[in-house]
Amino acid sequence: MRALQITELTGPDTALQIVDVPEPEASHLMTPGSGVVVDVEVAGVSFPEVLQTRGEYQIKPPLPFIPGSEVGGTVRSAPAGAAVQAGDRVAAFCMLGGFAEVAVAPEFLTFKLPDALDFAQGAALILNYHTAYFALKLRGRLAAGETVLVHGAAGGVGTAALQVAKGLGARTIAVVSSDEKEQVARDAGADEVVRSDAAWKDEVKELSGGGVDLVLDPVGGDRFTDSIRSLREEGRVVVVGFTGGSIPEVKVNRLLLNNTEVIGAGWGAYMMSKPDMNREIGAAVDELIAGGAVRPIVSRRFPLDRAAEALKTIDGRGALGKVVLDVRDQAPSVGP
Ligand SMILES: NC(=O)c1ccc[n+]([C@@H]2O[C@H](COP(=O)([O-])OP(=O)(O)OC[C@H]3O[C@@H](n4cnc5c(N)ncnc54)[C@H](OP(=O)(O)O)[C@@H]3O)[C@@H](O)[C@H]2O)c1
């Protein structure tokens, strides 16, 4: 099969090579001896793959290896008892191996793709939307009627969080850095949008009538203290990532003063050993798709042999919604 391997840890420009390798067996690292084999149509691209090209991600397989954590495609074979079967259109989280014509995922991380979503949206579904639901609802205890502030709101996690929060009945305020990103956040359903380079904390206080209930933060860095200051009494900040580059520190007296909380939400490693929780989140996301709230925004598509451009789009803060690779087409790229 045709696939893309990371052959050296020298960054997006030079780390990747198109190769012809044998198809994988029906066995996944997380479920040895068992796995759903998927004919991949589209592979999702995210921050971890950028980091993997430099050897900076926590999962460091021996070289060479095929990256790619999630795909949209068609089931070729599935283990007995799986919720999917041969011929089903699916979204699958394979963790590695997605940048290839055939990939394998654990059955508990393979979900039937509703008719409303195409393969590219399937490749944009699991990492971002399961994380958003996990962070907002299971960790952040979001309730209908609450107000949520979403940082990095035009990105993959950000657009997912806006849609999931709306679907759960919340009001949303998006923080973004440009006009183009403001439009994407509005397309994802943001009720209000503020700019990260303006006095956003004061605007947020005003827009929310004194403070928000929840902040979802995939960015971190300098803005963290203002995120805590943006909370109302008993508000929560959910920490999801650090695209801003630095890991913030909290003076905990701030939490005491206003009875607030900082909560961690790490979907990846935590979820890998919890099949039932994955199924529960999958069912909740399905409901949000059926209700029309969840529609992944795919802004850029590249053929497999132009994956370096996809990775550099993310690395350069240029991703709007999700970036994907068309694994089979050798079609020209789509997007700005
Ligand atoms: N905790 C978990 O379980 C989990 C799961 C999935 C992803 N994540 C993490 O969540 C983060 C976001 O992922 P994503 O897929 O949403 O990324 P993304 O699509 O690239 O979006 C990230 C957003 O961060 C903002 N940002 C602020 N400063 C930035 C900088 N210096 N460089 C790049 N972006 C910057 C950008 O928005 P503005 O330009 O508008 O500021 C950008 O849109 C990543 O760190 C990822 O590893 C965590």
Brief synopsis:
The chain is an alpha/beta fold and 336 residues long. Helix content is 29%, strand content 25%. The chain binds NADP nicotinamide-adenine-dinucleotide phosphate.
Task: Outline the secondary-structure elements.
Layout: E1 2-6, E2 16-20, E3 36-45, H1 47-52, E4 70-77, E5 89-93, E6 102-105, E7 110-112, H2 119-122, H3 126-139, E8 147-150, H4 156-167, E9 171-176, H5 179-187, E10 192-195, H6 200-207, E11 212-217, H7 224-229, E12 231-239, H8 253-258, E13 261-264, H9 267-272, H10 275-290, E14 298-303, H11 307-315, E15 322-326
Parallel strand pairs: 8-9, 8-11, 9-10, 11-12, 12-13, 14-15
Antiparallel strand pairs: 1-2, 3-4, 3-6, 3-15, 4-5, 5-7
The chain binds NADP nicotinamide-adenine-dinucleotide phosphate.
Q: How far from one another are the termini? A: 30 Å
Reading the helices and strands in chain order gives EEEHEEEEHHEHEHEHEHEHEHHEHE
- How many DSSP-defined strands? 15
Shape: globular
Number of helices: 11
The proportion of residues in beta strands is: 25-35%
Provide mean pLDDT, rounded. Answer: 96
The Rg value, from CA coordinates, equals 19 Å
